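Quick one: structure tokens for this chain, please?
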Amino acid sequence: MPINPQANKEEQRAELRRAALEYHELPTPGKVAIAATKQLVNQHDLALAYSPGVAAPCEEIVKDPNAAFKYTSRGNLVAVITNGTAVLGLGNIGPLAAKPVMEGKGVLFKKFAGIDVFDIEIDEQKDLDKLVDIIAALEPTFGGINLEDIKAPDCFYVERKLRERMKIPVFHDDQHGTAIVVGAALLNGLKVVGKDIKQVKLVTSGAGAAALACLSLLLKLGLPRENIYVTDLAGVVYEGRTELMDEDKIQFAQKTEARTLGQIIEGADVFLGLSAGGVLKPEMVAKMAAKPLIFALANPTPEILPEEVKAVRDDAIMATGRTDYPNQVNNVLCFPYIFRGALDAGASTITVEMEIAAVHAIAELAQAEQSEVVAAAYVGHPLAFGPEYLIPKPFDPRLMMKIAPAVAQAAADSGVALRPVKDLDAYREKLQSFVYASGTTMKPIFTAAKAATKKRVAYAEGEEERVLRAAQIVVDEGLARPTLIGRPAVIAERIEKFGLRLQEGRDYDIVN
């Protein structure tokens, strides 16, 4: 049941809590289950699935360990692993209480990328080497490891040690997933405001796992280290500071007289917040450079709310981690698809090149015109590339076809693909068949339409958004030449509004 919009905030929170508990309890406790991929209906099936037939694939794997990807589910199986030390906005709640979050992560993997998941909650918070040993010992079972909700700085050590030992992708999503989506949003934000990444001043609030991973990736995208200023609980990270310092922060220490966020924010082009709600004040925003980018990503309360920014200036572009504001920076835009590409390429690790490929794929998709599926899912939301649409929406079905092939290709180019994808076009078609299940049925019809000559299709409701988006697809696929029935001025205005590339005369005709 939807949350009552007429209720006050406290009533809405209580209603959401009740609905969430019911969702997790009924009709079956939890959110995940195991489903068999082979039939087991008679004695012959039993002989193949288990003894004696199961010995055959076992023997093949003994001869060639890579045969496990052919005869078992390992190549499509990811472990989502936590010790529960830094769970969402809940903190250190332990591994058992973290299980609903890990199950939820598994649901997202399956829904968006068709990847199977075992969530594994490990009761080890103090001995990091023991935690590493436990996870590393699971390598024969999984094709990839997604580390989740492990506190900083422990997460840096655990991921580094696992990557040194394991020959499958290990990815701490809280770090790298956030960094990839932030990178895409930043590139597009700078494009909108007409600024060069090599020239901007960036100030960050927070120096945890996500913030430092973001900064490391932004360096690879071209942001000069000398243009980055970090602040944390002790203020500005400056040369010579000793309080709350570690080897990861030291690399971003700057020679500056500024000691507070309020001082260092002056003239900043970009604010990156991964800290706590309310730390960025309106008077600080007023001191930023023209057309600033403000990424206030603390959850559930951002460092500053969009309405607070708007009260001070109207030239800022905002992004948050929340669904109720434009430009939501959400890791689900990244992690299912980077794992999809890595698994399908047989990647032995996830390289920086693969992360950068994902950044550019996400950024490019936001600049493309929207599909009818996305338009229908987000009625009333701005969906044309611009200040309120820097990154795609989570339910954009094209994310899979855009990101996974880019990641798979980058894995091959960086030399970590053990099973390189040789035909990217065929690979995209395979991904498309997963995303658009009905597309397989329609494919012969589309092929026949492309082969026909002098094809024209008349659209009676040529001014409607869904019709215009469909016409764009028809033109792009070379299926026919649309004739739109409607008022020319209205059609032209809506084509521009929806960010489409249709041009009268070149792509379509009009009957008024």
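Residues 173-193 form the longest helix (21 residues).
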